[in-house]
Protein backbone atom coordinates (compact mmCIF):
# COMPACT_ATOMS: atom_id res chain seq x y z
CA UNK A 1 0.00 0.00 0.00
CA UNK A 2 1.32 3.40 -0.94
CA UNK A 3 -1.12 5.92 0.49
CA UNK A 4 -1.39 9.71 0.24
CA UNK A 5 -3.50 11.54 2.84
CA UNK A 6 -4.70 14.93 1.67
CA UNK A 7 -6.57 17.53 3.67
CA UNK A 8 -6.20 20.98 5.19
CA UNK A 9 -3.67 21.62 7.95
CA UNK A 10 -5.27 20.41 11.17
CA UNK A 11 -7.71 18.00 9.48
CA UNK A 12 -6.38 15.18 11.64
CA UNK A 13 -3.97 13.76 9.06
CA UNK A 14 -1.17 13.20 11.56
CA UNK A 15 -3.35 11.40 14.11
CA UNK A 16 -5.14 9.30 11.51
CA UNK A 17 -1.88 8.57 9.68
CA UNK A 18 -0.34 7.14 12.86
CA UNK A 19 -3.36 4.88 13.31
CA UNK A 20 -3.33 3.64 9.69
CA UNK A 21 0.42 3.03 9.73
CA UNK A 22 0.14 0.90 12.84
CA UNK A 23 -2.85 -0.95 11.39
CA UNK A 24 -1.14 -1.72 8.05
CA UNK A 25 2.42 -1.87 9.43
CA UNK A 26 3.85 0.71 7.05
CA UNK A 27 5.99 3.79 7.85
CA UNK A 28 4.38 7.19 8.29
CA UNK A 29 6.24 9.81 6.29
CA UNK A 30 5.32 13.25 7.56
CA UNK A 31 7.18 16.00 5.72
CA UNK A 32 6.11 18.50 8.42
CA UNK A 33 7.71 16.33 11.15
CA UNK A 34 10.84 15.84 9.02
CA UNK A 35 11.13 19.60 8.53
CA UNK A 36 10.51 20.39 12.22
CA UNK A 37 13.25 17.94 13.13
CA UNK A 38 15.61 19.55 10.59
CA UNK A 39 14.82 22.98 12.08
CA UNK A 40 15.47 21.80 15.63
CA UNK A 41 18.77 20.16 14.58
CA UNK A 42 19.77 23.31 12.66
CA UNK A 43 20.64 21.39 9.46
CA UNK A 44 21.00 23.15 6.08
CA UNK A 45 17.49 22.07 5.16
CA UNK A 46 16.15 23.29 8.51
CA UNK A 47 17.74 26.68 8.06
CA UNK A 48 16.28 27.02 4.57
CA UNK A 49 12.81 25.85 5.63
CA UNK A 50 12.35 27.72 8.90
CA UNK A 51 11.18 31.12 7.70
CA UNK A 52 8.67 29.64 5.22
CA UNK A 53 7.21 27.46 7.96
CA UNK A 54 6.90 30.29 10.47
CA UNK A 55 4.97 32.34 7.94
CA UNK A 56 2.64 29.49 7.02
CA UNK A 57 4.13 29.36 3.51
CA UNK A 58 5.20 26.24 1.66
CA UNK A 59 8.84 25.23 1.51
CA UNK A 60 10.07 25.31 -2.15
CA UNK A 61 9.17 22.26 -4.25
CA UNK A 62 12.74 21.40 -5.22
CA UNK A 63 13.77 20.93 -1.57
CA UNK A 64 10.66 18.89 -0.77
CA UNK A 65 10.96 16.63 -3.81
CA UNK A 66 14.58 15.77 -3.00
CA UNK A 67 13.66 15.13 0.64
CA UNK A 68 10.82 12.75 -0.19
CA UNK A 69 12.66 10.85 -2.93
CA UNK A 70 15.50 10.17 -0.53
CA UNK A 71 13.08 9.06 2.20
CA UNK A 72 10.99 6.66 0.13
CA UNK A 73 14.12 5.03 -1.27
CA UNK A 74 14.91 3.75 2.25
CA UNK A 75 14.50 0.06 3.07
CA UNK A 76 11.52 0.42 5.41
CA UNK A 77 9.40 1.66 2.48
CA UNK A 78 9.74 -1.52 0.49
CA UNK A 79 6.27 -2.80 1.44
CA UNK A 80 4.59 0.56 1.23
CA UNK A 81 4.27 3.82 3.12
CA UNK A 82 1.86 6.59 3.95
CA UNK A 83 2.61 10.18 2.92
CA UNK A 84 1.24 12.73 5.36
CA UNK A 85 1.79 16.30 4.12
CA UNK A 86 3.21 15.45 0.69
CA UNK A 87 2.41 16.27 -2.08
CA UNK A 88 1.22 19.81 -1.34
CA UNK A 89 1.47 21.25 -4.88
CA UNK A 90 0.89 20.01 -8.43
CA UNK A 91 4.65 19.98 -9.24
CA UNK A 92 5.18 17.74 -6.16
CA UNK A 93 2.45 15.33 -7.35
CA UNK A 94 3.86 15.33 -10.87
CA UNK A 95 7.34 14.61 -9.52
CA UNK A 96 5.99 11.45 -7.86
CA UNK A 97 4.40 10.35 -11.15
CA UNK A 98 7.59 11.09 -13.08
CA UNK A 99 9.65 9.11 -10.59
CA UNK A 100 7.22 6.18 -11.16
CA UNK A 101 6.19 6.07 -7.53
CA UNK A 102 3.08 3.92 -7.85
CA UNK A 103 0.68 5.41 -5.31
CA UNK A 104 -2.23 3.02 -4.72
CA UNK A 105 -4.70 5.18 -2.72
CA UNK A 106 -5.29 8.89 -2.26
CA UNK A 107 -7.73 9.92 0.46
CA UNK A 108 -8.87 13.45 1.16
CA UNK A 109 -9.99 14.22 4.72
CA UNK A 110 -12.56 16.97 4.34
CA UNK A 111 -13.01 19.46 7.21
CA UNK A 112 -14.56 22.97 6.96
CA UNK A 113 -12.28 25.99 7.56
CA UNK A 114 -14.08 27.24 10.69
CA UNK A 115 -13.56 23.90 12.41
CA UNK A 116 -9.89 23.85 11.33
CA UNK A 117 -9.21 27.20 13.00
CA UNK A 118 -10.88 26.14 16.23
CA UNK A 119 -8.97 22.83 16.28
CA UNK A 120 -5.55 24.29 15.45
CA UNK A 121 -5.51 26.78 18.25
CA UNK A 122 -6.34 24.02 20.75
CA UNK A 123 -3.78 21.53 19.41
CA UNK A 124 -0.77 20.32 21.43
CA UNK A 125 2.03 18.07 20.28
CA UNK A 126 4.68 15.89 21.87
CA UNK A 127 7.82 17.05 20.05
CA UNK A 128 9.75 13.80 20.59
CA UNK A 129 7.25 11.53 18.83
CA UNK A 130 4.97 13.86 16.85
CA UNK A 131 1.96 12.57 18.88
CA UNK A 132 -0.90 15.01 18.56
CA UNK A 133 -3.50 15.97 21.19
CA UNK A 134 -6.32 18.47 21.25
CA UNK A 135 -7.48 20.08 24.47
CA UNK A 136 -11.08 19.98 23.24
CA UNK A 137 -11.43 16.74 21.30
CA UNK A 138 -8.51 14.49 22.25
CA UNK A 139 -6.98 15.72 25.53
CA UNK A 140 -3.97 14.04 27.14
CA UNK A 141 -4.73 11.91 30.24
CA UNK A 142 -2.91 14.47 32.40
CA UNK A 143 -3.01 18.14 31.34
CA UNK A 144 0.03 19.34 29.41
CA UNK A 145 1.99 16.06 29.36
CA UNK A 146 2.38 13.18 26.88
CA UNK A 147 0.40 10.00 27.77
CA UNK A 148 3.32 7.67 27.01
CA UNK A 149 6.48 9.47 28.13
CA UNK A 150 5.05 12.02 30.60
CA UNK A 151 7.13 14.70 28.84
CA UNK A 152 5.72 18.22 28.35
CA UNK A 153 3.49 18.97 25.37
CA UNK A 154 3.97 22.13 23.34
CA UNK A 155 1.96 24.25 20.96
CA UNK A 156 3.44 24.36 17.45
CA UNK A 157 4.90 27.75 16.52
CA UNK A 158 2.57 27.85 13.48
CA UNK A 159 -0.63 26.97 15.40
CA UNK A 160 -1.76 30.53 16.09
CA UNK A 161 -4.85 31.95 14.41
CA UNK A 162 -3.03 34.28 12.05
CA UNK A 163 -0.67 31.59 10.73
CA UNK A 164 -3.47 29.03 10.54
CA UNK A 165 -5.51 31.41 8.34
CA UNK A 166 -2.46 31.87 6.11
CA UNK A 167 -1.91 28.10 5.93
CA UNK A 168 -5.57 27.58 4.99
CA UNK A 169 -5.27 30.17 2.23
CA UNK A 170 -2.15 28.42 0.92
CA UNK A 171 -4.01 25.09 1.15
CA UNK A 172 -6.94 26.38 -0.92
CA UNK A 173 -4.67 27.90 -3.54
CA UNK A 174 -1.96 25.30 -3.88
CA UNK A 175 -3.03 21.97 -2.41
CA UNK A 176 -6.78 21.68 -3.02
CA UNK A 177 -6.22 21.48 -6.82
CA UNK A 178 -4.54 18.12 -6.10
CA UNK A 179 -7.92 16.61 -5.21
CA UNK A 180 -9.14 17.37 -8.76
CA UNK A 181 -5.84 16.09 -10.16
CA UNK A 182 -6.17 12.74 -8.35
CA UNK A 183 -9.94 12.45 -8.93
CA UNK A 184 -9.36 12.88 -12.68
CA UNK A 185 -6.46 10.45 -12.68
CA UNK A 186 -8.61 7.85 -10.88
CA UNK A 187 -11.41 8.35 -13.41
CA UNK A 188 -9.14 7.34 -16.31
CA UNK A 189 -9.06 3.59 -16.46
CA UNK A 190 -5.30 3.59 -17.00
CA UNK A 191 -3.39 0.83 -15.19
CA UNK A 192 -1.61 1.65 -11.92
CA UNK A 193 -3.48 4.88 -11.19
CA UNK A 194 -4.36 5.46 -7.53
CA UNK A 195 -7.89 5.07 -6.24
CA UNK A 196 -9.27 8.41 -4.97
CA UNK A 197 -11.75 8.84 -2.06
CA UNK A 198 -12.97 11.76 -0.01
CA UNK A 199 -14.11 11.19 3.56
CA UNK A 200 -15.79 13.46 6.09
CA UNK A 201 -13.20 14.42 8.74
CA UNK A 202 -15.70 15.79 11.26
CA UNK A 203 -16.57 13.47 14.15
CA UNK A 204 -14.83 11.41 16.77
CA UNK A 205 -11.37 9.99 16.08
CA UNK A 206 -12.88 6.50 15.98
CA UNK A 207 -15.59 7.51 13.47
CA UNK A 208 -12.99 9.06 11.17
CA UNK A 209 -10.72 5.96 11.61
CA UNK A 210 -13.60 3.78 10.48
CA UNK A 211 -14.38 5.93 7.43
CA UNK A 212 -10.72 5.72 6.41
CA UNK A 213 -10.62 1.94 6.80
CA UNK A 214 -13.81 1.65 4.73
CA UNK A 215 -12.28 3.84 2.02
CA UNK A 216 -9.20 1.60 1.97
CA UNK A 217 -11.15 -1.66 1.59
P1 LIG B 1 2.51 20.14 8.49
O1 LIG B 1 3.05 19.60 9.75
O2 LIG B 1 2.25 19.07 7.44
O3 LIG B 1 1.32 21.03 8.68
O4 LIG B 1 3.67 21.06 7.84
C1 LIG B 1 4.16 22.20 8.52
C2 LIG B 1 4.82 23.15 7.53
O5 LIG B 1 5.91 22.49 6.89
C3 LIG B 1 3.94 23.63 6.37
O6 LIG B 1 3.14 24.74 6.74
C4 LIG B 1 4.98 23.99 5.33
O7 LIG B 1 5.64 25.21 5.62
C5 LIG B 1 6.01 22.89 5.52
N1 LIG B 1 5.72 21.70 4.67
C6 LIG B 1 5.38 20.44 5.08
N2 LIG B 1 5.21 19.62 4.03
C7 LIG B 1 5.43 20.38 2.92
C8 LIG B 1 5.40 20.11 1.52
N3 LIG B 1 5.08 18.90 1.03
N4 LIG B 1 5.68 21.14 0.67
C9 LIG B 1 6.01 22.36 1.14
N5 LIG B 1 6.06 22.69 2.43
C10 LIG B 1 5.77 21.71 3.33
Radius of gyration: 17 Å
What do the pLDDT scores average to?
93
| Total domain modules | 1
CATH topology: Rossmann fold
The assigned structural class equals alpha/beta
Task: Provide an overview of this structure.
- This protein has 217 residues and is α/β, with parallel strands linked by helices.
- The protein has a single domain, classed as P-loop containing nucleotide triphosphate hydrolases (Rossmann fold, 3-Layer(aba) Sandwich), CATH 3.40.50.300.
- Helix content is 47%, strand content 14%.
- It has helices at residues 13-24, 31-41, 44-54, 61-72, 90-98, 113-121, 161-175, 177-187, 205-216; strands spanning 2-6, 28-30, 81-84, 105-110, 123-125, 132-134, 195-200.
- The strands form 2 sheets. Strands 2-3-1-4-7 form a 5-stranded parallel sheet, with helices on both faces.
- Helix 1 (13-24) crosses helix 9, helix 2 (31-41) packs across helix 3 (44-54) and helix 4 packs parallel to helix 5 (90-98).
- It is globular.
- The model has no long low-confidence stretch (mean pLDDT 93).
Amino acid sequence: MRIILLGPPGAGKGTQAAFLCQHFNIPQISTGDMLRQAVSLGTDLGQQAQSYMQQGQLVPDALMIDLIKERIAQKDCINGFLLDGFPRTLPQAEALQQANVAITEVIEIDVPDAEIIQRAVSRLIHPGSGRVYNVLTNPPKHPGVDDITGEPLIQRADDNEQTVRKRLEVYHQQTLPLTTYYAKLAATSAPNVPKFSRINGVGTLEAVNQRLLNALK
